[in-house]
Design brief:
This protein is mainly beta. The protein is built from no helices and eleven strands. The termini are far apart.
Length: about 130
């Protein structure tokens, strides 16, 4: 099974920024759509963002549009999620996931993604 590793989480004050990274240790991310999802205590998993394998398509959940930006660096085999203007309601465990979707297809639908990381905690609090 493909292994994904998230990093970059932590504690940040409201209005602050974090950049999450998603790296693969045993396969090339280039051919996969990569999604970011989050789950807060007592809530269902939510699709946050996605970038297609071709980088031609992106998806953002309504709650993060205009604040988060997804990008990928194929040379580093890494996908990033830049999170700006963070709010307390962004507090959650963030997961990245890989899916074999069409080159220009992306989604925030968790069943589309077959490989998942272990998650990284993001806490937004003053």
């Amino acid at each position: 099974q493909a292994q994904l590793v998230e990093s970059g989480g932590g504690l940040v004050q409201p209005g602050g920024s974090l950049r999450l990274s998603c790296a693969a240790s045993s396969f090339t991310l280039n051919y996969y759509a990569i999604g970011w999802f989050r789950q807060a205590p007592g809530k269902e998993r939510e699709g946050v963002s996605c970038i297609s394998s071709s980088r031609g398509s992106t998806y953002y959940g309504d709650s993060v549009k205009g604040r988060f930006t997804i990008s990928r660096d194929n040379a580093k085999n890494t996908v990033y999620l830049q999170m700006n203007n963070l709010k307390p309601e962004d507090t959650a465990v963030y997961y990245c996931a890989a899916g074999r979707l069409g080159a220009y297809y992306c989604s925030g639908y968790a069943p589309d993604f077959g490989s998942w990381g272990q998650g990284t905690q993001v806490t937004v609090s003053s």
